[in-house]
Design goal:
With 277 residues, this protein is an alpha/beta fold. It has 9 helices and 8 strands.
Length: 277
């Protein structure tokens, strides 16, 4: 092939498991692999935005500092009474967007624009009105990150330009196809560990709902993997932390106490993988 290949980092959603992506980014940087394009969903969009703003080791060190700072902390104020009150008063979410917005503004300037980032960056959210995925390619970075992270029930939908958005994981949890459509020749997929753990038929009532959600979550990604053009190189980085579909730890979405362990495990697993490809 003539000319330089276009490299994309695709960072999937996964809430508290997002720390593993930091370890993967560190491994990629250690191997001298830098992106021309960064695509993200939900927590993956947050992680990707930091590296897009400050490429290389500077951004990765910043991410490690952020995740270490969150370890063991309660990300959002309000105890059980406040959450019960939100349900009892028929509010659309357990938390408002204000606290998440304040957290984001500690990381990015409030006026930050997507198109001004050092590395090309896009993130996806689910449009309520259009029942489809929406890609943010320009405009307010903070607003876009709020939209892609607006997990239903936990947060209210985010309004931008008269349209309302929920978490991007509802429509494209690991946006591989987008990278290919934007001309990426080499794609590194940073996922939190869900796609590494096989599904099985349910044996309990609650598992039926969890499996159904996982099928929907994985379908778009697995279809994209099957349809990858032969001239596109895709690397699915190992998380070092496969997440079983019935792992109840994923419901403790505010618990980031093991972030350092997750980052280190993903770093070692991904560095090992990259050393032989």
């Amino acid at each position: 092939m003539n000319g330089r290949r276009r490299t994309a980092f695709v960072l999937g959603g996964g809430g508290r498991w997002g720390a593993v992506e930091v370890g993967m980014l560190r491994a990629l940087d250690e191997r001298g692999i830098q992106p021309d394009l960064i695509l993200g969903t939900s927590i993956g969009a947050f992680n990707g935005s930091v590296v897009a703003a400050q490429p290389g080791g500077v951004g990765i060190d910043r991410l490690m500092e952020i995740w270490d700072g969150l370890a063991g902390s309660d990300l959002f104020s309000g105890g059980m009474f406040d959450r019960v009150k939100a349900v009892a008063t028929l509010q659309p979410a357990m938390h408002g967007s204000g606290e998440l917005e304040s957290l984001l503004e500690l990381v990015h300037p409030p006026q930050a624009q997507i198109e001004d980032l050092a590395v090309e960056f896009q993130c996806v959210a689910a449009s309520i009105e259009k029942a489809s995925e929406h890609w943010f390619t320009s405009g307010s970075l903070i607003k876009a990150l709020l939209a892609t992270s607006a997990v239903p029930v936990l947060f209210p939908p985010v309004e931008i330009g008269g349209e309302h958005f929920y978490d991007g994981g509802l429509v494209n949890s690991v946006p591989l196809r987008r990278a290919v459509n934007l001309g990426a020749d080499v794609v590194y997929v940073l996922q939190v560990g869900r796609v590494e753990a096989p599904l099985r038929p349910p044996s309990k009532l609650h598992e039926a709902a969890l499996i159904s959600f996982e099928i929907a979550r994985r379908h778009t990604f697995s279809t994209a993997m099957r349809e990858i053009p032969t001239d596109v190189e895709v690397h699915l980085l190992p998380s070092g932390n496969p997440v079983e579909f019935d792992d109840w730890r994923q419901l403790r979405w505010r618990d980031t106490g093991n972030a350092s362990e997750l980052m280190e495990g993903a770093f070692k697993a991904s560095l090992s993988y990259l050393s032989v490809v």
